């Protein structure tokens, strides 16, 4: 259903405790680019810390105008975790030029927004900013890790009646953000379009495993043993692609890239708590030789049985190539019976 209101949607983008990597990724949007997409969707970018010329007093006036209700805010995007320290005061992070904690500005603006969007896993769940004992007392907008709550509380709903929309990822794919904004602009994003962690289903209904270039190795359980190997990274190298909700290998970065295509294991960065798995990212924890992190929708007994059968049937080509850094044995033209 299309929006009946022809008025442009006002978008305000703020940054808190994070690295800015989601903004950097967003600028990599192509076909179309960021600004073309916003224009086509009828979205007016009020302010972005890296893209806007206005700053200081101009920004303060803009924020006060929104809080006073004199300027309608349709889309509030936050990048980075909310900083609550020290001792719950929020004073570790004050908006430049003001004495107020950034978290207080965010809370007030959220009450005025039609939609509140957490951009990246830090804004959604706390993410990397909460790691190492969380000295800054960081949290997400509506989550603290996997526990609902965060800055705005479990019961928060924006003026449009939705909870915080968590576009999780570290960083996000630019199209995850733009596609969500387009859905909102078309009045096509309801509660049913968000999963149980409030992520848009447009990307979260997929697994990173889908489209993985190492899937043939996975099917035959021909596993890599070191980082340069071509084999499947799940059994030994910490890959969580069979559990991670994202479409990274079917919706590539810059038309051709993903972590797995670059030879690095998926660390499930769209999930809360990914930043501290309790073991090295590139090592698979096991019990009795069986990986702990099995595919999310497969019983352990089935996986063990199928893995045994698959390994028994692994073609010699895959056994050789799995432990090499380049293809040593090319596929044959015809399978010969032995």
Description:
The protein is of the alpha/beta class and 338 residues long. The protein has two domains: 196 residues, Rossmann fold, CATH 3.40.50.700; 120 residues, Cytochrome-c3 Hydrogenase, Chain A, domain 2 (Irregular). It is built from ten helices and eleven strands. It has a five-stranded parallel beta sheet with strand order 2-1-3-5-9, sandwiched between helices. A hairpin with a 2-residue loop joins β7 and β8. The model has no long low-confidence stretch (mean pLDDT 93).
Key traits:
12% strand, Cytochrome-c3 Hydrogenase, Chain A, domain 2, 24% helix, single chain, 338 residues, alpha/beta, two-stranded antiparallel sheet
CATH class of the largest domain: Alpha Beta
User: What does the radius of gyration come to?
Assistant: 23 Å
CATH topology of the largest domain: Rossmann fold
Integer tally of domains: 2
Count the helices. How many? Answer: 10
Low-confidence stretches: none
Strand content: 5-15%
Mean pLDDT: 93
The string of secondary-structure elements, in order, is EHHEHEEHEHEEEEHHHEEHH
**What is the CATH superfamily classification of the largest domain?**
NADH:ubiquinone oxidoreductase-like, 20kDa subunit
Shape descriptor reads elongated
The end-to-end span amounts to 60 Å
Instruction: Characterize the biggest β-sheet.
Output: 5 strands, parallel
Fraction of residues in helices?
Answer: 10-25%
Category by helix and strand content? alpha/beta
**Tally of strands:** 11
Oligomer: single chain
Named at the architecture level, the CATH assignment of the largest domain is 3-Layer(aba) Sandwich
Output the strand order for the largest sheet: 2-1-3-5-9
